[in-house]
Amino acid sequence: MIVEMKTGAGKEAVDTVVERARSLGFDVQLNLGTDKTVVAILGGNTGQLSTDVFAVLPEVESVTRIMKPYKLASREFRERDSIVSIDGVEVGGKRVVVMAGPCAVESEEQLMEAAKAVKKAGASILRGGAFKPRTSPFSFQGLEEAGLELLAKAREKLGLPVVTEVVDPHEVDLVAGSADILQVGSRNMQNYALLTEVGKSHRPTVLKRGFSCTITEWLTAADYVLAEGNDKVILCERGIRTFEDSTRFSLDISAIPVLKRSSHLPVIVDPSHAAGHYALVPAIARAAIAAGADGLLIEVHPNPEEALVDGLQSLTPTHFTSLMDELRVVASSVGRYI
Ligand code: PEP
Ligand code: MN
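Above: inputs. Below: predicted complex with manganese (II) ion.
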């Protein structure tokens, strides 16, 4: 931790900082400039020390952490890329893993039709929401347990692993009963009780980025899952809120290389929720693979015009099939395959 004193701060103020640090068991290194003093607080666990301890002292200009707030998700903690394995499908290796299916499970026919189509086109994981965290309480909330049963049925019939969202810490076991991968949605990225329960489940987990959260906050949230001994975390960039309103959210493409530098966890991209419109999905999906994403999460509906949720951003099976062909070309151009 670095404490920068105000220009011209007196010796008494500097001594107060030094004494405070030493009284808490830390070492101190002083950098006495001509008119500015900088105090480095070292040794011990500064991660648990609040910056306020020093910020409140007289003539302190600023206090900065030099340690990252996240640990287990960091590259320093694990140098090699983590690979999350789901029933033989590896996320984070050479293969780009495509997870696809409807936003919400609506009926057995709809789910089976979507599942067959995405499997045929080359997707290796089926997505489908049974519990939908909707912005309005009056919108369709998902088929809930009946939706989970349909997902389990589709998994059994087609042999495709399933990813589905869990919204309530008390329902983690229930959802894990039908899902191979738990999804923590954007709105719940900082629901720490949910993250802890998902961690305890030891299930592979897709952790979507909160749409108003920084990458640091996202990786710190991942630490909640990792801290419970669940090392199967997959990060999913799905767009963030910016001033731009021509797309539903702004996909932060730079998050991919930034995460690859700062974390060992696999990174996938959801172009559907970022775009908000089916016509924009292919370009974003291609860009994500070119930028180094380990996978994609794409919404596909057999009849988007009849979808109960997110029809406008859903691809038809035909569109999805041709997109997969394009994605194979992009993947091979960056030394990967689908
Ligand atoms: C979803 O994947 O269906 C979803 C609700 O996404 P997000 O949490 O990113 O909004
Ligand atoms: Mn959706």
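Residues 114 and 302 are 6 Å apart (CA to CA).
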